[in-house]
Amino acid sequence: MKNLLSFVLHLCDTVGAFTLDAVRFCVRGSKAFAGLVKIGFFKFLTLISKFYNNVVFASLKYVANKVSPFFNALQEMLEKSVRHARNNGFVSGVAKFSKEIKKCLNKNKKTVVRVVNYVAPAVAVVVILVAVNMLSNVTFAFEVKYSGETIGYISDEDVFNQASELVNKKVEGDVSEIATSPVYNITLVNADQLSDADKLSNAIIERSSDVLTKGYGLYVNNRFVTAATDKATLDNTLSSIKAEAEKKYSTKDVEFGATVDVKSGLYFNDQIRDAKSTKAVLTAETLPVITTVTETVDKDIAYKTVQTRDNTKYEGYSRVSVYGKKGLERSVVRRVFVNGVETETEVLSSEVIKKPVDEQVIIGTRVVSWISLNDNAKLSWPVAKVGYTYISSYYGAGRNHTGIDIAAPMGTQIYAAAAGTVISVEYTGSYGQHFVIDHGNGMKTLYAHCSRMDVTVGQKVEMGEGVAKVGSTGKSTGPHLHIEVIINGTKVNPAPYLGVK
């Protein structure tokens, strides 16, 4: 009775506290009320649970003490019936047991009634308290549903927000399609049914397993580029890119110009690529490949041309006395290529293997003067004096030159040096287009390298008559007239015949 009184007093306290909490709800609003209802309800359940330990077992013990004589008598009767059955057979034993139990019930009628009066309420109390004990673990929760399917229970919406953030970390790409806002229903569940953020995020991901694949992602400078189902696909692709550069430049000094990481995780199906597609997506902008080549380079050193003026030679005279020779410089060069484009060149060392030899050229400075016809000249000047006109090479000239070269602009008029008859008009590899005029008395003149010839064989020409145009046909380095004077079949120096002093 003492335990029962204590329970009633505690119960009154709880009801009073709950009532006071309910009054406060009027001020704090509906959300506070929901919390207070939960607090008051669970205070009540806790008290019931404590009373369960003190009252139930005490009551059962009391009942057991009251009914124990009846059960002792019942046990003794059962033992007698078993012994009778062993001595007289099973049927006789059953009859004996029925007779004895009827006698026992009549003899202990008051005890049987007492058992029923005590046991039935005790059993009811036990059932109620077990139910209360189970309800003490019940809590209000939000049921999270997608398309009518329950994926978990959470204590508040913040848990879902945290789960969405975890999904975003676990899955590469835009997760808005798989972590959409769910439908919430308020319900009662056991506390152990509540999901934390991690458990709920796994449930969201599992629900989207048809669009997600476990694989490996390739990240360049912490930025996602592509993914594959296995790590080997990405590793082999990266290795092949390096190997191609190594083969192309014959060097092992190849590296990526960015931080490259391979991470395992969950990826959308359209992010997964095979080896060929993975390599194609790694463009020059996505993954710079830096190749460094160190090589030995030979480079020509140009020679200088040194001119020496000679006033004993006429203007236009030029002769190479010492031919120039290129030198050779050997350097060790470091070259850097980024995706095949050279971005840096550094000379590490250099050495002159052979020095260049300067070319020596003698230049004539003597001014040419001539007279078309005078006492000493037998021939007139054969080239029109327009623009530049000068003797570019003399007879002999250190190279067995058989005439005089008169430089003039292309197409300048050529005149017959004396009257005569054209005896030949032809083209050869050396003279190019050329012709010969016979002046009689054993003298002939030859005109070579013409761009155009205006005479024919057998034609009679007069001194100063236009016969051709200056050109550069045959073996020639520029437009000029090569004129020869032939006396009795011998090629002689034309200068005296042309009045060149």
Which class best fits the helix and strand makeup? alpha+beta
Could you say how many structural domains there are in total? 5
- The biggest beta sheet, please? 8 strands, antiparallel
Work out the radius of gyration: 62 Å
Count of β-strands:
25
- pLDDT < 50 stretches: 1-43, 368-374
**Secondary structure tally, helices:** 9
Global shape: rod-shaped
**How far apart are the termini?**
162 Å
Q: What portion of the residues fall into strands of 2 or more residues?
A: 25-35%
Q: Can you give the helix content as a percent range? A: 25-40%
Nearest-integer average pLDDT: 79
Task: Give structural notes.
The protein is α+β, with helices and mostly antiparallel strands. It is 37% helix and 34% strand. It contains 9 helices and 25 strands. The strands form 6 sheets. Strands 15, 16, 18, 19, 20, 22, 24 and 25 form an 8-stranded antiparallel β-sheet that branches. Strand 19 and strand 20 (443-448) form a beta hairpin.
Summary?
The chain is α+β, with helices and mostly antiparallel strands and 501 residues long.
Write the layout of secondary structure elements.
Blueprint (H helix, E strand, L loop, with lengths): L1 H27 L1 H59 L1 H18 L1 H27 L2 E9 L2 E6 L2 H14 E2 L10 E8 L6 H11 L4 E9 L2 E6 L2 H19 L4 E3 L3 E9 L6 H7 L7 E13 L3 E10 L3 E5 L4 E12 L2 E14 L4 E8 L23 E4 L10 E4 L5 E3 L4 E9 L3 E9 L2 E6 L1 E4 L6 E2 L4 E5 L9 E8 L2 E3 L2 H4 L3
Parallel strand pairs: 3-8, 10-14
Antiparallel strand pairs: 1-2, 1-4, 5-6, 5-8, 7-9, 9-12, 11-14, 12-13, 15-16, 16-24, 17-23, 18-19, 18-22, 19-20, 20-24, 21-23, 24-25
